Amino acid sequence: MRHNFCPLGSLIFSVFKTLTDQQVTVELKNDLSITGVLKSVDQFLNIRLDSIKVLDEARHPHMMAVKNCFIRGSVVRYVQLPSEHVDTQLLEDATRRGAPT
Amino acid sequence: MENSSIQEPFDLIRLSLSERVFVKLRGDRELTGILHAYDGHMNLIMSDVEETIMIVDVAEGAPAGQPATVNVAKRKMEMLFVRGDGVILVRLPYCRICRCSCNQVSPPSRT
């Protein structure tokens, strides 16, 4: 079997674990974008963010008082990552091996 | 031989690692960017990403068959994780098989 994917998708899970305490921007499928500090992530890519800020606060006034949140992985569309903390060479090698970083 | 290395669908994506790829997503979105990682869910990590969003405006009360106006919004992102459930297709911007720029990935020839 050449594709030895971990059933839990642990490669990308590992990437998110290495990015804990970094600032990320999560864009949800309902177009809400939330910037915050990544506090934790699990195998489903559920995400806990601290010190959050909603990008378009005028459109989402009900989010103004929220300081931290838990985001269900399935509602995420994108996560913008800090590129200086992502080793792209390591990622490509790990993806080719089909093994977690 | 290029063709013999493509056995399974994911082989095509594996050959696209560290190359600029085109990704079509749900919700009339398209991305181009350099592919760095993927997994079995087609979660992707890409860099130097340009996103194109097609916003189709059908004018109210317009007769059926009248062409709708399409607005295109573009934005750039440095490093992006894309959740796999939104991915429709991934393709190279050039033909992997014949290396021409016909913008198609043709199936490996069986001859």
Automatic annotation (TrEMBL), chain A:
InterPro entries: LSM_dom_sf (IPR010920), Sm (IPR047575), Sm_dom_euk/arc (IPR001163), U6_snRNA_Lsm2 (IPR016654). Keywords: mRNA processing, mRNA splicing, Nucleus, Ribonucleoprotein, RNA-binding, Spliceosome. Belongs to the snRNP Sm proteins family. It is found in: Nucleus. Component of LSm protein complexes, which are involved in RNA processing and may function in a chaperone-like manner. Gene3D superfamilies: 2.30.30.100. It comes from the Eukaryota. This is LSM complex subunit LSm2. PROSITE patterns: SM. It comes from Mycena pura. GO terms for biological process: mRNA splicing, via spliceosome. One of its GO terms (molecular function) is RNA binding. Residues 11-85 form the Sm domain. GO terms for cellular component: catalytic step 2 spliceosome; Lsm1-7-Pat1 complex; P-body; precatalytic spliceosome; U4/U6 x U5 tri-snRNP complex; U6 snRNP.
Automatic annotation (TrEMBL), chain B:
PROSITE patterns: SM. SMART domains: Sm. InterPro entries: Lsm3 (IPR034105), LSM_dom_sf (IPR010920), Sm (IPR047575), Sm-like_LSM3 (IPR040002), Sm_dom_euk/arc (IPR001163). One of its GO terms (cellular component) is U6 snRNP. GO terms for molecular function: RNA binding. Residues 8-96 form the Sm domain. SUPFAM superfamilies: Sm-like ribonucleoproteins. Pfam families: LSM. GO terms for biological process: mRNA splicing, via spliceosome. LSm subunits form a heteromer with a doughnut shape. Binds specifically to the 3'-terminal U-tract of U6 snRNA. PANTHER family: U6 SNRNA-ASSOCIATED SM-LIKE PROTEIN LSM3. This is LSM complex subunit LSM3. It comes from Mycena pura. The gene is LSM3.
